[in-house]
Write a structure and sequence with these properties.
By secondary structure, this protein is mainly β. It has two helices and 20 strands. It is globular and about 65 Å long.
Length: 313
């Protein structure tokens, strides 16, 4: 399976324009939301998103890895939205800054390969097509579409001139397309969000990453304040999310590669602090709970997301 970086499609979930009891909960950390305004819809967002893979498995069974490979990826996406139609349509641009490292043992010596720089640029549109507000609650649905452009380097080499593994390249070399739907329901202190996003990955130089289906579910609870005496007020939110992705097998010259693709699901507890109505900080630990990977692949290990969102427009 591809060492996939979920460059977040801009989760939008804190409305400043609705009644406090219904909207006074921050957006989930790893899951998108149907809101297109407020702290998310017009907020600059950045965060550190990590991926860690080590330990070899073949068809679900642990096996010995003679190279003892360990892969770490850190992505810092820079995400800037623009509200085209107020409370209806956002256009979002983003690009990740990446650092990738693979450590391994060769001829009895521990070595490593690294790569860093800008990844692939993407543009995303989110359109709110359903909104039902009642006292103390709101229900919303939105559609999203995304195009990713091959702006990141995809032909980097090591010191000896050998091409780096595809998992260490900064870009895919392909133009890829994503479409999805998001559902949000917030009742006073409790919020529920879910998204489903399919990505069509195209071919570049005879190689194509497998198409992916990203699925997320998040339950959020406002820990404090229990009730608003003044609004806005400092706020703490707790989240529990299921974040997963199913990937089809990669292909090379039209032939499926057996050691690629599969499904991985993470259980992701998180905490969020909103000190001001225009700023929040958040952190989440992603723990793999399901790994059904095809063939022989490195397993996913626990990883984290830490970041901020800042409403400046």
């Amino acid at each position: 399976m591809r060492h996939h970086i979920h460059v977040a499609l801009l989760a939008v979930g804190f409305s400043l324009g609705y009644v406090p009891d219904a909207s006074a909960q921050g957006p989930p950390i790893n899951t998108d939301t149907a809101f297109v305004n407020g702290l998310q819809g017009a907020a600059v967002r950045s965060f550190v998103f990590s991926v860690h893979r080590s330990g070899l498995a073949r068809d679900g069974q642990d096996i010995f890895d003679p190279s003892d490979r360990d892969v770490s990826i850190f992505a810092v996406p820079i995400i800037i939205p623009y509200e085209v139609i107020k409370n209806k349509l956002d256009i979002v641009g983003g690009i990740p800054v990446l650092y990738k490292r693979m450590a391994f043992t060769e001829n009895g010596e521990r070595r490593q390969l690294t790569n860093s720089g800008f990844g692939d640029l993407f543009i995303l549109a989110k359109y709110l097509f359903l909104q039902k507000d009642r006292p103390g609650q709101t229900t919303r649905m939105a559609a999203i579409g995304r195009i990713k452009f091959p702006t990141g380097e995809d032909d980097e080499t090591d010191a000896q001139g050998n091409p780096l593994p595809r998992s260490l390249q900064l870009g895919t070399g392909s133009v890829d397309y994503s479409v999805g739907v998001i559902f949000t329901h917030v009742v006073r202190r409790l919020g529920f969000n879910t998204d489903l996003v399919y990505t069509f990955n195209t071919e570049a130089d005879g190689f194509a990453f497998g198409d992916t289906l990203k699925y997320d579910v998040a339950v959020g609870y406002r820990l404090a304040p229990r009730e608003y005496i003044t609004y806005p007020a400092r706020q703490w939110n707790a989240y529990l999310e299921l974040n997963g992705q199913f990937a089809r097998k990669n292909t090379l010259n039209g032939m499926a590669l057996p050691d690629s693709g599969g499904n991985v699901t993470f259980l992701s507890p998180g905490i969020q602090f909103i000190p001001y109505s225009t700023f929040l900080v958040e952190a989440s630990l992603r723990i793999p709970v399901i790994q059904n990977l095809n063939g022989t692949q490195l397993k996913f290990q626990p990883a984290f997301t830490v970041g901020f969102r800042w409403l400046i427009f």
